[in-house]
Amino acid sequence: MLQSTLLAVARGDAPADLLLRNGRVVNVFTGELEEADVAVSGDRIAGLGTGYEAASVVDLEGKFLLPGFLDAHVHVESSLATPLEFARAVVPRGTTTVVSDPHEIANVHGMEGILYMLEASEGLPLTVFVMASSCVPATPMGTAGAALEAGALEELLSHPRILGLAEVMNFPGVILGDPGVLSKLEAFRGRVVDGHAPGVLGKALNAYVAGGPSSDHECTTPEEALEKLRRGLFLYLREATNARNLVDLIPALTPGNRRRVALCTDDRQPPDLLDEGGIDAMLRILVREGIPPVEAIRMATLNPAEHFRLDDRGAVAPGRRADLVVIRDLEELVVEEVYAGGALVARGGAPLAWETPPQPRPPLPSMRVDWGRVALGIPAREGRIRVIRAVPHQLVTGAEEAVPTVREGQVVADASRDLLKIVVLERHTGSGRVGVGLVTGVGLKAGAMAGTVAHDHHNLVAIGADDESILAAARAVAGMGGGLAVAREGRILATLPLPIGGLMSGEPIETIRGGLDRVVAAARELGSPLHDPFMAMSFLALEVIPSLKITDRGLVDVDRFQLVDLWV
Amino acid sequence: MLQSTLLAVARGDAPADLLLRNGRVVNVFTGELEEADVAVSGDRIAGLGTGYEAASVVDLEGKFLLPGFLDAHVHVESSLATPLEFARAVVPRGTTTVVSDPHEIANVHGMEGILYMLEASEGLPLTVFVMASSCVPATPMGTAGAALEAGALEELLSHPRILGLAEVMNFPGVILGDPGVLSKLEAFRGRVVDGHAPGVLGKALNAYVAGGPSSDHECTTPEEALEKLRRGLFLYLREATNARNLVDLIPALTPGNRRRVALCTDDRQPPDLLDEGGIDAMLRILVREGIPPVEAIRMATLNPAEHFRLDDRGAVAPGRRADLVVIRDLEELVVEEVYAGGALVARGGAPLAWETPPQPRPPLPSMRVDWGRVALGIPAREGRIRVIRAVPHQLVTGAEEAVPTVREGQVVADASRDLLKIVVLERHTGSGRVGVGLVTGVGLKAGAMAGTVAHDHHNLVAIGADDESILAAARAVAGMGGGLAVAREGRILATLPLPIGGLMSGEPIETIRGGLDRVVAAARELGSPLHDPFMAMSFLALEVIPSLKITDRGLVDVDRFQLVDLWV
Questions:
Q1: Residue A192: which residues within 8 A CB-CB, separation 6 or more?
Q2: How far is CA B481 from CA A111, B401, B499, in A?
Q3: Which chain B residue's Cα is nearest to A233?
């Protein structure tokens, strides 16, 4: 019996499997640094102290021993990799537990997608907890591949790695008491419910908090963060590839409130994960900005563990999982070794060879485009049309108007005016429905880019300087079962296949990163000045972020929360 | 639908039921004092801020508004009152939630006793959460009225007010991996498991923590408290009638660890509850000893709420229970008004008239003494006998030896030598079994005292200067269905009936207090110098606290954890 072995090791009556000697333990319970040996039995910590014996002894030579880091909120799909490959990227950086929201794949494959992510994350050195995706689809103004109501989500409750309800982005629904939203909240009463309430303050915030969500990771100013902390929301500081709020929010942190602060990466792409890191990078920023190292480490360990009620981790203590991080310097915070469940799984920032379980078969691609019905034309009329303005490094867009360029009775893209055509092809049901509009700020001088990463409905979105290029890129993407592609007229310049849901590749994350670099470079060579034109494109279709967006149903005025005509 | 009303009030779209204006909210999330009005809808807080309207408006005139206090660990039975009357004592002092362990009545009536406590605490202004009693009976060396194994305890898990497993006092059982203890821990995995590990440190502590308990309230020194905090145990500071550890442990508290500290009263008798208070008295001591008031208040509110995962209380925040305490001065911490579930339930330290639910019928008395078989005689022999020494204000006893006084071939009590006879009559099964011994330090010059409060098996214990008085007192107790009595020869001097389990009275707590004062005074008039001879007697039968104790099975050498003969 494992438990009796653990107790015997703890008592000193049986040798440990592993003894980490001469380390300085970061004690997140007390905030102290503690010189203690740590005895490990199986995947658990048996005891701290002196006088333990073990089959395997490691001398830490005075280095610091930390609990493995917890990422409080992440969409694994944004790594473009499977959970296994995501783990290979984040575990060497010290993250041993993530609380994930699979709402990207859930919007494509529904419950099948969530179950795939659960299965694909079984048995990894990284513990992947899953929150049931609360907003599938995000709105009825776009066509997702699935709809998940309270009844379906409830079926997930019995899974041991389902912790609660994922970010409730439909904050108007909570505040106004929408019955569908309330039944989801009711179904998850007693579980942790994550929030997502950008800019919600005052009475609206009172209502949102009263509705049930207990966290927020969408603050952009210290004032907003402080008000949310005061009302009882746990604050997740976020540093995503496309939304970096950490430094801005540090002024909100005080000795009195920082116990209620955790860290999250939300959406990180392979280059960031591999070059910069994740939670470890956030810890370095916190310490650089003056937060005491042990306090910063608490935000990545005990704080989220307590918040998510994960009392089997988040600290170096008897009975907890032996997820451990070794570092040399508390200011530099460079992860040297990582133990997961008592096994050394990474060293020097690189994963060791893991015994990995067989990977499940992913869902069949949801790629149903009726090309015969796809029509990209915009018959010309008198007047002005609405134009989406892409804003660098922001999810929000501008809403502009312009007199279109017309050729042969059709509104056409006009790269000379930076007016590109943007199309969203519905890909889940084969309806042939296409939303067509114009966008400025993406900057292609020729050709087109297309992709199936298009938050949150993940239809096939494309932007281009001419219809031929657009169709070529879009067909290339469809032909891969999803992914990213760049084309110029009939020629395909670069592709990144993402056949799992049109969101993820089954390849090693380093390979994916190479492919991503290539498609981004191709788009930039076509003239886009954006750091990552694909990332920008993927949020132009997200109809819950202001101001003007586009779905397969057409343009969406997000401020008015309704579909609007292309013509003013 | 209540939830939609709450949200409408929070938004300001509907008037609140109650608005507390011009208060200074103690914000336990951030540690700040916040000037905010608090709007209440039904039993919940709807919002904080300004601009709310309400049917009923109370002007707090700048007074402080605190969350209701949580008592992290209490045996309600020690108040000698029903949960209703216990609530009448503690709610006016600001306690609106207790986490109780009904192990006194569980040792008498088993599951029926626990269910009675659950039923009798339904619908009170005080929320009584219950932990499933883990140690019934405490040991096989005494005869309790019931035995609760893992299977029985598991049945409690579905009750909404059962939080987890109560103090696991059998710490050797945890540390050594006793299968019965481990199955209880296993049955409550994922729930909060309270610990009880006096003096357990080092490797034994590692094993105890690895076993599952996550708190401790038995520390007596700052060093012990610090080590337990470091290993991850939540520290409950205790200030019971008979075990006061608060001031001793304050040196262990630091800004780095005090988030993991809560307060508990454990066992408090009516005079303390009514004269001194409970959690409020502890807060005053903490502040007097230099803990910042808001930090002290957190120990009685947010800290235990987080630890017990009670995210519906412990803070003044939207959606949480409107359990609120009004005080004028953060240093004096005198509770002026108390709201429970949005209703004003106490003012000026006194309960208001409550609408109380009908009280359930208590279990029939467990009072089965076969008087025909009860024999108190000790035939004389050569040699010395073991004598229990009662130690004032301590649960531990001394173990001494003496040559007995013998009369007519029998060892007799000899008040002139302060050698009194102590007897424990088994009262649960009618076995007629009696443990007989001698005790010194109780100091009666004549007569006898008897009672059914005898931790933890709660048999009928009596101490006296002669057998006639002992039998008279014991018969008086039995005749009441349990309680406390003092007799001198054939005459009954004072009684306190405690017919509910032999532990509690159904009378108002003020009446109980009067009765307790009378029996204590009677015992003291018979010569006992002890502050409360009944309290002392009630722990002389507790065979898990060193050194020499007595049960119905005879003397127990607790250091050796075995029964021993009266004769050396």
A1: A131, A163, A164, A165, A214, A215, A307, A308, A309
A2: 61, 35, 5
A3: B29
- Set of chain A residues whose Cβ sits within 8 Å of the Cβ of B10: 203, 206-207, 210
Question: Confidence class of residue B272 from pLDDT cuts 50, 70 and 90?
Answer: very high
String of b and e for B106-145 (b: at least 16 CB within 10 Å)?
A: bbbbbbbbbbbbbebbeebbbbbbbbbbbbbbbbebbbbb
Give the mean model confidence (pLDDT) for residues A470-480.
98
**Chain A residues near residue B229 by CB distance under 8 angstroms:** 29-30
Strand partners, A436: A423
Whether B11 sits inside 8 A of A206 (CB atoms) is: yes
Global confidence as pTM: 0.95
Residues of chain B with Cβ-Cβ distance to A34 below 8 Å are 230
Residue B57 to residue B15: CA distance in whole angstroms = 11
Tokens of A65: 């021993």
Quote the tokens at residue B414.
Answer: 């000899």
Q: B319: distance to nearest CA of chain A, Å?
A: 4
Among chain B residues, the shortest Cα distance to A178 is held by: B4
Per residue in B411-429, pLDDT tens? 999 999 999 999 999 999 9
Distance from CA of B194 to the nearest CA of A (A): 14
- Check: CB of residue B397 under 8 Å from CB of residue B389: yes
Instruction: Give the mean model confidence (pLDDT) for residues B135-154.
Output: 93
CA distances from A18 to A7, A342, B209 (A): 15, 8, 19
Q: What percent of chain A has pLDDT over 90?
A: 94
pLDDT category of residue B21 using cuts at 50, 70 and 90: very high
Burial class of residue A517 (count of CB atoms within 10 Å of its CB; 0-12, 13-18, 19+): middle
pLDDT digits (tens, 9 = 90+) for B463-475: 999 999 999 999 9
Report d(CA B2, CA A295) in Å as an integer.
40
Nearest C-alpha of chain B: how many angstroms from A548?
Answer: 27
SS3 A98: strand
Judging contacts by C-beta atoms under 8 Å, the chain B residues touching residue A255 are 31, 255
Instruction: Write down the ipTM of this complex.
Output: 0.94
- C-beta atoms of B315 and A51 within 8 A: no
Q: Mean pLDDT across the stretch A221-230?
A: 98
Size of interface A-B (CB pairs under 8 A): 166
Return the HEC string of A215-277: EECCCCCHHHHHHHHHCCCEEEEEECCCCECHHHHHHHCCCCCHHHEEEECECCCHHHHHHCC
pLDDT digits (tens, 9 = 90+) for B50-95: 999 999 999 999 999 999 999 999 999 999 999 999 999 999 999 9
Distance from CA of B354 to the nearest CA of A (A): 27
What own/partner pairs with CB < 8 Å and gap ≥ 24 does B530-535 have?
A: B530/B390, B530/B392, B530/B441, B530/B442, B530/B443, B531/B392, B531/B393, B532/B241, B532/B269, B533/B442, B533/B443, B533/B444, B533/B449, B533/B463, B534/B449, B534/B451, B534/B453, B534/B484, B535/B241, B535/B242, B535/B269
Phi, psi (rounded to 5 degrees) for B203: -65, -35
Q: Which amino acid is at B154?
A: E
Contacts of B213 (CB under 8 A, 6+ apart): B167, B168, B174, B185, B193, B194, B195, B196, B197, B233
DSSP designation for B221 = S
Q: Is A42 left (phi over 0), alpha (psi -120 to 50) or beta?
A: left
Closest residue to A317, CB basis, from B31, B209, B255: B209
Residue A446 DSSP label? S
Out of B11, B230, B306, the one facing A204 most closely (by C-beta) is B11
Strand partners, B412: B405
Q: Classify residue A363 by its DSSP letter.
A: P
* Element of type H or E holding A487: strand A483-488
